[in-house]
Design brief:
With 452 residues, the protein is an alpha/beta fold. It is built from twelve helices and 15 strands. A hairpin with a 2-residue loop joins strand 7 and strand 8. Helix 3 runs parallel beside helix 4 (114-129) and helix 11 packs parallel to helix 12 (414-432). It is globular. The protein binds fe (ii) ion (FE2) (2 copies). One fe (ii) ion is lined by residues 107, 139-141, 249, 290.
Length: 452
């Protein structure tokens, strides 16, 4: 009996993980105790723009076959071998969409290889040539990433990766040369794509220990000096009467109930302080990526302020989305979504292939984890299938569970099966329950914060 209790306790500790103990930055913002310009009504310029996120561009010259590449793909949900063709298709859709500019909130490449960055920049340069301005920021994969490798049969070989200076150089035409302000302590900048609108392009990647740890840090935050710079920009925007739209890689708002427990590294460290800062200065919406999900989440703060975090899914993860944002008269924002559903020279139905890739990826990882806890195969299959369906629905957005698929049945599950279910029910329920705001098609009223 005692042995069973110890086993169960150990299991619960392992499954719960220790991710809740991250170190949060503590910022001291001027607005908290000094005289800074008061909030006032925004006037929003009418404009139409696009968002693509997490394109994870992968130059095929780095290898798309062989044992090492196949092995890598087993644990990755991204359509890497198809990334260039998806990007090409997205280019055509955006070029013909009537937008003025495009923002890309990070993870521009698979793992920061210089050749992949050059390829992404080349496609974006084509949009610029077509008269559409592009603005990028880095994600956790894009700079100082020692996982930049090429796949050669059964082995991987390190290739040149991008660091802060080379990132700015490669993207000089796609942000930095158009900047009206730049932060000295990150690769963040401000641009004014149309008169009256400031894009606050923010670098939330933490690369300090990437080399020492030989791992690209998944967490994100703004260092203290960058956070202070952000506040100064927001004060200037107030004084000059500019509307501000920040965009960055990590989420400002948790996108499902339980995400902070399971995946805190996908939410900005210090996110509540940043929510309060943005809201104080009249920011109404931010654009993020990183979790590869089409999800809109709204936070309503105690002082009556609110902010929307409009997260865009990954271009190389089902449903391969592109968002269009139209700020209309009367401060109404119309958000629509389009999807890459075909790519050139693809045999079969690309959309089904993209969907199955995500499902199989999540399923495989879930099976390995659950079987590791000695749950027998049919029981592990049942749990893993439900988990994979829940992730698929979250990535696609507008979650709408059918029948009982948002819950587990414990019937015939055995001790370890029941333990897994007890411990992981919150994930299934959380992923299926949509947060405030439709995800793919909605209109937000910037005056009131209501959406429909
Ligand atoms: Fe990503
Ligand atoms: Fe990311």
């Amino acid at each position: 009996m005692k042995k069973t209790i110890i086993l169960c306790w150990l299991f619960l500790v392992i499954m719960a993980g220790c991710k809740g103990n991250r170190a949060e930055p503590v910022y001291e913002f001027k607005y908290q105790d000094a005289n800074v310009p008061e909030k006032k009504e925004d006037s929003w310029p009418q404009v139409r723009f696009a968002v693509i996120s997490d394109p994870h561009t992968y130059d095929p010259s780095l290898g798309t076959e062989g044992e090492a590449f196949e092995e890598y793909l087993k644990h990755d949900r991204k359509l890497l071998a198809e990334s260039e063709r998806i990007l090409g298709e997205a280019f055509t859709l955006i070029r013909d969409s009537g937008v003025i500019f495009v923002i890309v909130p990070g993870d521009l490449t698979k793992d920061g290889a210089t050749v992949s960055h050059m390829m992404f920049a080349d496609y974006m340069a084509r949009l610029e040539k077509a008269g559409i301005e592009v603005y990028v920021v880095p994600g956790n994969h894009d700079m100082v990433n020692t996982h930049a490798v090429k796949f050669d049969s059964e082995k991987t070989i390190p290739v040149e990766h991008v660091v802060r200076d080379s990132f700015k150089k490669i993207y000089k035409d796609l942000g930095y040369d158009k900047a009206i302000m730049e932060d000295e302590h990150s690769v963040s900048y401000v641009a004014e794509p149309v008169p009256g609108l400031w894009l606050l392009a923010l670098d939330s990647a933490i690369t300090t220990n990437n080399i020492a740890e030989d791992y690209p840090n998944t967490d994100g935050e703004f260092n203290h000096k960058t956070a202070a710079w952000i506040e100064d920009v927001l004060i200037n925007a107030r004084m000059e009467g500019k509307a501000v739209i920040p965009f960055f890689h990590h989420a400002l708002v948790p996108h499902w109930e339980g995400q902070e427990k399971l995946h805190p590294e996908y939410i900005l460290n210090g996110y509540q302080q940043m929510q309060a800062l943005f809201a104080h200065y009249g920011v109404k919406m931010v654009f993020t990526g990183h979790y590869h999900a089409q999800d809109v989440a709204k936070v309503s703060l105690e002082d009556g302020n609110w902010v929307y975090d409009i997260m865009t899914g990954s271009l190389v993860t089902y449903p391969c989305p592109i968002r269009y944002i139209e700020i209309q008269a009367d401060n109404m924002v119309r958000i629509t979504s389009d999807f890459v559903t075909t790519i050139p020279d693809f045999e079969g139905d690309f959309e089904s292939y993209a969907r199955d890739t995500v499902f199989d990826g999540v399923y495989t990882i879930a099976m390995e984890t659950i079987m590791g806890y000695r749950v027998n195969e049919p029981r592990a299959e049942y749990i893993s299938k439900r988990v994979a369906s829940a992730y698929l629905s979250h990535y696609r957005g507008d979650e709408n569970p059918q029948g009982d698929e948002a819950s587990f049945s414990k019937k015939g599950m055995g001790l370890m099966g029941r333990l897994v279910i007890n411990n992981q029910s919150y994930v299934l329920e959380g992923l299926w329950k949509d947060t405030d705001g439709a995800d793919n098609e909605l209109t937000i009223d910037l005056n009131t914060g209501e959406w429909k």
